[in-house]
């Protein structure tokens, strides 16, 4: 894992109301290889859960998780996160499909951020993201940034 993981008892960055350990943290930990080299899970059961866990991975700086949950056909070779960006709030606008029995899903969200060095420098990312499920795992395919 890269970045600065949260304590399992801390509030989850995705703002679900759960603790990090019982929310996104369990998915982050589930993709760390076990002694046999496989990732034991648990894995996000829905497209929205994966999107929330990816937002939380950005918030804690877990580039490994982001790469592992990116669909192989679209995954970049590496990912460098900006340490100056502090992710502050996630608003899920809507979801289409993406349930446990679907193979595709769409999640629209707005992620709010600010600069760590200049807190007055604030912004937001409004994106419509596409996800695909293969077997028991959801993957991020791509996203269209909205105006």
UniProtKB/TrEMBL annotation:
Against InterPro entries, the record matches this protein to: NTF2-like_dom_sf, SEC_C_motif, YchJ-like, YchJ-like_M
Superkingdom per UniProt: Bacteria
Q: Where is the YchJ-like middle NTF2-like domain?
A: 46-143
Q: Name one Pfam family in it.
A: YchJ_M-like
List the HAMAP family hit by this protein, alphabetically.
UPF0225
Family to which the UniProt record says this protein belongs: Belongs to the UPF0225 family.
Protein name (database record) = UPF0225 protein SAMN05518682_1323
Source organism of this protein record: Cellulosimicrobium aquatile
């Amino acid at each position: 894992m890269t970045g600065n993981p949260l304590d399992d008892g801390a509030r989850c960055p995705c703002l679900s109301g759960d603790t990090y350990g019982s929310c996104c943290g369990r998915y982050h930990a589930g993709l760390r290889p076990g002694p046999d080299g496989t990732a034991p899970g648990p894995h996000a059961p829905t497209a929205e859960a994966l999107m929330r866990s990816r937002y939380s991975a950005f918030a804690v700086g877990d580039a490994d998780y982001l790469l592992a949950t990116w669909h192989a056909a679209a995954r970049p070779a590496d990912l460098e996160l900006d340490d100056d960006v502090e992710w502050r709030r996630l608003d899920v606008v809507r979801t289409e499909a993406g349930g446990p029995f679907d193979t595709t899903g769409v999640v629209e969200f707005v992620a709010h951020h600010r600069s760590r060095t200049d807190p007055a420098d604030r912004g937001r990312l409004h994106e419509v993201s596409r996800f695909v499920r293969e077997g028991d795992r959801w993957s991020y395919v791509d996203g269209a940034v909205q105006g």
